[in-house]
Structures are given as structure tokens and as C-alpha cells.
Amino acid sequence: MIGNLDHATLQHIWWLLVSVIGSLFLFLTFVQGGQTLLWQVAKNDTEKSLVINSLGTKWELTFTTLVLFGGAFFAAFPLFYATSFGGAYWVWIAILFTFIVQAVSYEYRRKEGNLLGSRTYEFFLLLNGSVGILLVGAAVGTFFTGSNFVLNDYNQSTWTNPLRGLEAAFSLFNLSLGLFLVFNARVLGAMYLVNNINFSSLPELEQRVRRSCLVSFICALPFLLYVLISLLIVDGYGFDAEGTVSMVAHKYLLNLLSMPWVLVMLLAGLLLVIWGVVLTSLKSGTRGIWFGGLGTVLVGLCVFFLAGYNNTAFYPSKVDLQSSLTIYNASSSHYTLTVMSYVAFVIPVVLAYISYVWKKMNFRQIGIDDVTGDKSYY
Amino acid sequence: MDAIDLNMVTWAKAQFTLTAMYHWVFVPLTLGLSFLCAFMETIYVRTGNEEWKRITQFWVKLFGINFAIGIATGIILEFEFGTNWSNYSWMVGDIFGAPLAVEGLVAFFLEATFFAVLFFGWDRVSKRFHLFSTWMVAIGANMSALWILVANGWMQYPVGMDFNPDLARFEMQNFWEILFSPVAISKFTHTTISSFIVASMFIFTVASWYLLKGRHMEMAKKSIIIASVFALFSTGMTAVTGDSSAVVNYETQPMKLAAYEGLYKGERGAGIVAVGVLNHDKEPGDDADPFLFEVKIPSLLSLLATHDPNAFIPGIEDLLWGNEAENVMGVDAKIKRGKQAIEDLAAYKTATKAGNDDEAGLYLTRFNVNESYLGYGYLNDPVEAVPPVATTFYSFHIMVFLAAFFLLISIAYLYFAMKDTLQEKKLLLGIGFFSFFLAMISSQAGWVTAEVGRQPWIIQDMMPVAVGATNISLGNVQATFFMFAAIFTMLLIAEIKIMLNVIKKGPEGGI
Asked: Of B114, B103, B107, which is closest to residue B137 (Cα–Cα)?
């Protein structure tokens, strides 16, 4: 069945799958957002424990989704994996570093003999939620602003900027996308905490969390607007039937116009996030996370679709246009994409058991009783 | 191809060694303890005995502390293929990426999802669902090992693929051949089952300490019974899978097999060195004796590797310069053919670029003749194909010796624990206390044997390590090396301190 699909169709399917995984990751960064809210909303040890234990049942999902994102790129678009990770070395290493320290922080923060003290582990969580997500945004930003690499006849890359990827953080566009993601993660984090924590007897904490959702959203807005407006006016990297890459005026605006459903998704996504914020901050709802989450996924998908579909080079090279990566020239072979497409049938099963366990574990909200005495896990 | 900074390659290798070995401190415990916890919880659910619940929770707590740092050290390995081995990632990504993606999808999510239930779910879900989750964590952890070991097995024995000269990469032709390659299967079984020993030995060490101190005696004895049965089963299976590793090594990596035994001159009825000290001045091709001292068991190597005591096992020198009588082709001949392959590939690319299709077709036909020696074309001197013999030899022998110790200590522990006299055997407990540390040494030595023994190849016969590296300057790789060394060491110290605190405290409710 899948074996009959042509290579180009499979390449489109895999760009879709990578986009879905990336967008789900952006939704799951509510964990990172929650980590950066910790020092603002939690004023004593009990409140801190509530926040940490609430996020603590979910952090591994975000982490694993990031790992899968890397793995899926490796399997489906290996030339991107090789060029970007080896080339934009420091930006990826810095992101990884923040995730390495995050992985131990939940478990070690309150354990006796943890060497560094709980404040250090809380700082690690803050670092992961701020610098980590900012750099993820900067790295995604290079899908539009381009990078500095050249490929030789054997498809081996040479990076031409000595900063090895950190230069991505010095672009206003990349930086804005990064900051938008940081604040959006905080919006989602607040929504999740409101959904998962039982605030009875802690009205002040509830008020602080609900307020932080709105404040973070307001902070995110200017960066979002800057990113959106830039995308509508900048020239982009397109390619023709022969695969020759050139600068195309208003490329991303053209993409939106030729794929109007992406525009619909973008607007729907933004409205959903706004509705989630309204529910969380202005009304006393607890279901904002589902609207905010779905909205984030939709906006994320638009970002990836604009970058990779409609004959657009998703990983452009500023220094040598013809080295730019497209979903056609960076992909795996027809055979490998076919095999991986069969494997992808597992995705609904995975999503099903994740939702089932999520429902079972979050059925009862987490309250003070769950974090006092011996009962607190983290 | 561009010139490669060999010094940088050395640092990149060192970094991979560092991060992989750190990761491997925690992984065997995860693989084995997850099953041990599942066994214990099964007993709890079946008997309803609360004591077993507290025993399970105690080991789950230690499991959790170890699990976190296992994840922290693991993420870097997945991305390190890209950061430090970019050319490798491109040239084999079409094959190597798939198992990594499958690992994430089918194994990591299983672990990540059910791990939350394992730690937080005691009061939130039913007993049976909690037990189910514990089993899912164990299965997920071991499934992730399957996929990464399939990937590793493919590097040792590249099958199911073909070289695409237009894109300059290897492409997958047969997924099943890669998944069920004999090397992948023996890697997976040998590595996971030997990890069960490591986890059992961890329980031996902690429980021995309790018995010596006269604390938590009941829990210690019960845990030892479970662990020793698991260890006995695993030691037996590890020996069987170890033997099948020898057979596939003979067939697929004869140079590695020769290095295990310090065998320079091939022979019929080759023996195994039971105890030996290598002569470090020995060079391939000279007349010096490879050993300063050795005790050999005759014919055993031939028997283990081929199941025929009189079979010919090629030595390092046969493999380097060939042995016509035994039909062994030398590395020197392979280098010539490999260099021809590289030349023809370059000529093919030039002709294609110039639009000269006839000429391109001619070069391609010539390239295909020597394609399977491609990797040898990057070597200049045959001796570059010899792995560090001393490291391979000693690590292999340390691993095997210690395996015998695990068998003996497991038998003794099971016997005396069943007789309920183990707590009186102070000397035995004193020895048993060191089990985990020895198991860790043995497990690490196993990886050293497998990975040092296959040098200089990143893909056996197809690509030397240096060709796979990223085009990056030395300073960057040095900086990240020290960064990872510092952070992992710090986290390891924290982990050990936390573990010791938990062990000192003992299980909740004092059993």
C-alpha cells in the first residue's frame, strides 16, 4: 500500500509527521513554562512542591518528544540532521545541556545529599525553561532566516561562521521567535497548573498562576506580531522544478496565499490560544490548557508548513543558495521512508495509551495532601 | 573529500567514549532493576503481602534515582552522532536513523508514560494497573536497548544496504535483514541479559551490607533470593549468547577475534589464553613472541568460534598480508582495491557533472567491482587495520573472568539464603559486597572489547572512524569534552550521595 506511493508523496508525508512531532513538542513545553513560573508563583516550600510534583508527572513526555523529533529528522531527513547538528554545533549543544540538567533536577531537587542544593536544581529548571526554549526558537527561526553552510559533491557540509550556530541568536527574527516560544510556554504552563492543581485552601497561589497566564500572553504578543509581520514581508528561499534555489520576493506570504488552509489553521490556532487565556485568567475555568495546547499545535504546524511546503527550502544556506536543504534533497530513500511510514502506524497507539494514562493520573487533581509528609515524590 | 584533522577525531572519539561509558554506568541497572522490581511487585499483587510492597517501593526508589541520570546521559548520545559525526550521519543516515526513530517511538514513550504511574500512581490507580505499568517500564527500557543495539550491530556488520554513488551514501535495501542480522541478535541478547546480572549484583551489594550490619534482614534475604535466581538464569544465558558472539565475530570481524586472544599467527586448533601477559613491544610481522607469559587451553578458540576444534583461525598477520593456503585475503590487497574504488567514484562524479554519461557508466561499473573494499581505500598502511591489541585482550579476559565469579557467588547466595544461614557467612557477605562494582567493571569491559576491538572502523570495512567525523575545529570538540566530563562527573557524585543516603535510611516502615 505505502510502497506504491511515490517518493515525493512520502517526502510530504514525512515533513507532515516531523511537523506534528515538533508541534506536539511545542504544546508539551508547558512543562518548561511551568518551570520558569516556579520562582514567581510559588512563595513557599509547599507551593513549590505542588508545582514541581504537578509538572513532574509530565516532564518526561516533553523530553521524549524532543528526542523523537531528533530521531525522526535523522531517519527521514538525514542530510538536515547531519548538516544542522554538526554545523550549528553550539546552539544544539547548549539546548542539550539545558535538557541534561533538567532530567536530573526533578528527581534530585529535594533528595538528601544532592550535592548542589535544591536552589541549584531549581535554577537548572529555570535555565531549561528560558535559555533552552529560547534557543529552540532561534534554531527553528533559521528555517526562515538561513544558515551559513556549504555542501560539497559528497553532501558533506562546511560551516562558514566560527560561532557554529550561536550566530542564530543574533538575529532579531530568530530571537523574537525564541522569546515568543518562551512566553507561550509560560502561558501553557499556567494553564496546565490551573488544570492539575487543587487550589482549595491556596487561593493566593491560584490567583498568581491565573494572573501569570495573562501577563505572559501579553508579553508574548509583540514578539508574535514581529514574527508574523516579518514572515509576510520578507523574501524567502524557493526552488524551481530543477531544484535550483533562488530568493523569491514575499515567499512566505505567497505560501500562505497558495495554501489558504494554512492561513485558516494559523488564525484558528491563535483564537484557540486566546480563548484558553480568557478561560484561565478572566474566567475561572480549568480547561484552558486544551484550547491553548491545540492552538499551539496548529500555530506550530503552520510554521513548519510555511518553511517546508510549496517548493520552499526549509533549511536554507545564506552563503550558498544551492546548498540549501529541501524536503526532496535532504530526505531518506524511497525504501527507508516506506519502512518508516509503516512504523508510523504505531503513532495512534502511542497517543492512545498516553491519553489513557494521562486521564487516569490526572483524574484527581494534585493537592496539599499529596505533597506533605512522605507522600511527596519530588 | 576534505582533509580531516586527526587530532580532532581523537578528541571526538574520546568524547564518545566518555559519554557512552558514563551512560553505561546507569543503563544496565535500569534494564535489570526494572524487571527485578516487576518480579517483586508481582509477588506483592499475588500474595497481597504488604511487606513485598515495601520491598518493591524501596528498590523502585533506587531505580528512580538511577533512571533520571540514565536519561540525562542518554540524550546527548542520540544527538552526538550529528554534532561530532556529521559525515557519518549523512553517509549512513538512511539506514542508521531508522532504528533511532523507532526506539523513540515504540520504546521511550512506553517508558516515559508508565514511569509516571510507577512513581506517582501507587494511590491513583488500581494495584493491577500499577503492576502492569511496572512491567511496561521494564519492557520499554529493554525495547529501547533492542533498537540501539540493532543500530550498533549494523555498524559492526553492515547488511541490508547498498551504496548510492550519486548521493554518496549508503541506502537501506532490506529492513528485516538489518533487524535480524546475527550480530544484532547476539548483541541484543548478550547485552541485555548481562545487564540483568549487573542489576542482580547491585541487589547483592546493598543486601550484603544490610546483612553485615544486621539491619533490614528480612528484606535483604528476600531480595537476595529473587536476585540470585535472576542472576543464575542470566549468567547461563550470557554464556550461551557470549558463545554465539564468538561465532559471529569469527564470521564477520576476524580481526577483532584475533585481537581478543592476541593471536598474531593463525593456526588450526587455535587455543584460548586462560591467563597471559602481553609483550608490549610486539609489532605485527616481527618475530617476537606476543606473550611474556601465557597459559593456553588448546583448540578451544577453534571450537568456540567454529564448533570444530581443528578449524583454522586467522591471526592478525594472516589478515594483514593474506594467507593463500587458507584462502585469506590480506588488508594490503584490500587497500589497493579500496583506493581504486575511491578513484573510480571521483571519476564517476566528474564525468556525471560534465554530462558525459558513457564515461560515467564505465567508471560506475569499475567502482562496483571494488565497492565492498571502499573503507580500506582510506587506509595507507595495512597495520592501521589492527585494533589496539592490549586493550582488547585485557578487557575481554577481565569480562570473562568476572563472569565466572558472578556464577559462583549467585550459587552460594541462593544456597545459603534458602537455608537461611547467609547472615552468618560474614566472609562470603564481605566478598559479595563487591559484586556490583565487579559487575560494573565487567559490563564496561564488554563494551570496551566490542568497540575498541572493531577499530579503526565506524562501519566495518566500509568507513574508518576518521571519515565519519564532523568538519569542525579541535577547540570546539575539546570544549564540549570537558563540559560533559564536568557535568556528568558532578551528577554522578550527586547520584551516588543520594543513593547512599537512601540505602542508609532503608525501606519505609522498617522491614
From this structure: B114
